[in-house]
Amino acid sequence: MRKLIFAINTPRDGCVDHTSQSVDDEALAYFTQLTRDSGVQVFGRKTWQLMVPYWPEAATDPSSTKTERDFAVAFNSIEKVVFSRSLKSTEYHETRIVATDLRGEILNLKKKDGKNILVGGVDIPSQLIQLGLIDEYRFVVGPNVAGAGRRLFDSVNLPETLELDLVESKVFGSGRVALRYSKRSSTGEIK
After folding, report:
1. Fewest CB atoms less than 10 Å from the CB: which of 19, 52, 90, 163?
2. Sign of dihedral through CA atoms 99, 136, 151, 28?
3. pTM of the predicted model, to two decimals?
C-alpha cells in the first residue's frame, strides 16, 4: 500500500501563509526530490491556485533559476488530484478535480500500485490528519518567525494525541531543518 506523505514549508511559529514565505535552493531541491519520489500530488483549491500557473510557467521562464526549473519539471510530470467544490475543470494536464468523498478517494489512491502520495497545504491535510490517513510528515522549518497568519494544525481536532516518531532530520546551510516523522502504530512500532 502506498504511503500518504504530508509535506510543508513552515516558519518556526507555524504560521503557514505561503504568500509571505520564501524557499531557498536547498529547501526547494528537497521538495523537488520528494516530488520525484511521489506518484500523485493532492491539493485543495487554495494551494492548487498558489501552485498553478506559477510552477508550470517557471519551467520555461528564462528568469527561473535551475533549481526552480528542476522543481517545475518535477511538478509538471506528476499526476495531481485537486479537491474542490468550486472548481469545475482545469486545463492543466495530469490533473483531476474531485468534489466529494475525500476519505474514499485517498483510500483508493493508497491501494493502487505506484509511488507514494504527496499532499500539501493546510485544509486538506488537516482533514486527512483527522481521518488518520497520513502516514508520514515532512516539515521544512525555516529560521524565521512570521508572527501572524494562519497556524499549522489550527483546525485539526483529534480524538487523541497523534504520536509521531522522528525518522530523519537534516540541517540546511540556511538554518532550515527538514524533519521526517512517521505515524506511530497502535502497537508503538514505526510504520
Report:
1. 19
2. negative
3. 0.91
